[in-house]
Write a structure and sequence with these properties.
Aspartate Aminotransferase, domain 1; Aspartate Aminotransferase, domain 2; binds pyridoxal-5'-phosphate; pyridoxal phosphate binding; PyrdxlP-dep_Trfase; antibiotic biosynthesis; pyridoxal phosphate
Length: 381
């Protein structure tokens, strides 16, 4: 039986009963379209895996490599990539902690880390606590990696630098092409820069778009990647992720302290594995729903907020809205929250190039998106 659109299954009343961050941070009269949680029910294969674990009391410590095997099969099937070797993977608690651990493997205290801003704000937070100064290499106006800018950033950062790539890119939704990734890899190699790729959004791409794993491109052999089912199947509350080493980074990953593998949850791993193994139809239904939501948002903005510029991204379920044309004196996200009762992410938190933008989470129903744009338009009329 075809899986129905997961984005149209839950009412706002049902969603308000949730106790997670998206629905509990703001008062009841605010529509929350901010943090990257999705307004979807759990995919049935995932729910079954969790239920089976609960029924069996299978809630102990994790064992085995089923998650990595499921990801390797998924990578082969979806991306035509057969280079994910299970023996070059490691379980980590989540993607951000995995990023931290990978950076510890390939850089030392005080070594700079290059990021393509505007970018996922926790990159800045985690790098600061890790004691790694950030060197920004802004994306170009089309939201793509600019090679000259990246070269300049690598040169400024010096030989001991690492590059934290976000692929697909949060917040712009840019899906880097194989050629762009290979160019970045060559540049990193020339500058002696090690690459850590955060590929958490990899399964979430628009119809007709192909995601390219960083480790699959020429020059990506000494890269390290982080992947997880958490964004594509909404499993952030079931902690688990995988670190993956390219063939030339195997020795680095082998130095990962054993205790890092104590962090991921066994039930989380079961859920993430079921998602990759049996959640393909659900994912396809989600991706079709997201295609529609991107088109809907573009239409609604053109009609009600023509001064807001939106270039639908090919990946992620996040929309990056350029609100500078509204001429607001303050942060547009604050205006939309205070006057419109819509919670969005403030672009300023995403680093250089983010001021005047907001990030809107499209992983909700068309009704919620329609109501949000109506409220946003009223807020600035
Ligand atoms: C690019 C990116 N990396 C990491 C995360 C967080 O992942 P985790 O909860 O596995 O640390 C997110 C969440 O939205 C994200 O967008």
């Amino acid at each position: 039986m075809a899986v129905p659109n997961p984005l149209t299954q839950l009412s706002v009343e049902q969603l308000r009963r949730r106790s997670s961050m998206k629905w509990r941070t703001y008062p009841e009269d605010v529509l929350p379209l901010w943090v990257a949680e999705m307004d979807v029910p759990l995919a049935e294969p995932v729910a079954q895996a969790v239920r089976a674990a609960v029924d069996l009391g299978d809630t102990g410590y994790p064992a085995g490599t089923a998650y990595a095997e499921a990801l390797a099969a998924f990578a082969r099937g979806r991306w035509g990539w057969d280079g994910l070797a299970v023996e070059r993977t490691a379980l980590v608690p989540d993607v951000m902690l995995g990023v931290v651990e990978m950076l510890k493997l390939v850089s030392g205290p005080g070594d700079p880390v290059v990021v393509n801003c505007p970018v996922y704000p926790p990159f800045y937070l985690f790098l600061r606590s890790l004691g790694r100064p950030v060197v920004e290499a802004p994306l170009d106006p089309a939201g793509r990696i600019d090679l000259a800018t990246l070269r300049d950033a690598f040169a400024r950062a010096g030989e001991r630098a690492a590059y934290l790539l976000c692929s697909p890119h949060n917040p712009t939704g840019t899906v880097h092409t194989a050629a762009e990734l290979a160019d970045a890899a060559r540049l990193a190699h020339d500058h002696g820069v090690r690459v850590v790729a955060d590929e958490i959004h990899a399964p979430v791409v628009a119809t007709g778009t192909t995601f390219t794993p960083y480790l699959s491109v020429p020059g990506g052999e000494n890269g390290l990647s982080l992947m997880s089912s958490s964004k594509a199947w909404n499993l952030a509350g079931l902690k688990a992720a995988l670190a993956i080493a390219g063939p030339e980074a195997a020795a680095d990953l082998a130095r990962l302290p054993e205790e890092v593998g104590h962090g991921p949850s066994h039930v989380g791993i079961l859920a993430h594995t079921a998602a990759l193994r049996d959640g393909g139809d659900w994912l396809d239904a989600l991706l079709t729903g997201l295609d529609r939501n991107r088109a809907l948002l573009a239409d609604l903005l053109a009609e009600h907020l023509p001064a807001v510029r939106y270039r639908p991204g090919q990946g992620t379920y996040l929309a990056w809205l350029d609100c500078r044309g509204l001429g607001l004196p303050d942060d547009p996200a604050a205006v939309f929250l205070e006057r419109g009762r819509v919670a969005l992410n403030s672009g300023a938190d995403f680093g250089t190039g983010g001021a005047g933008f907001v990030r809107l989470n499209l992983a909700t129903s068309p009704e919620v998106i329609t109501e949000a744009v109506r409220r946003m338009a009223d807020a600035v009329s």
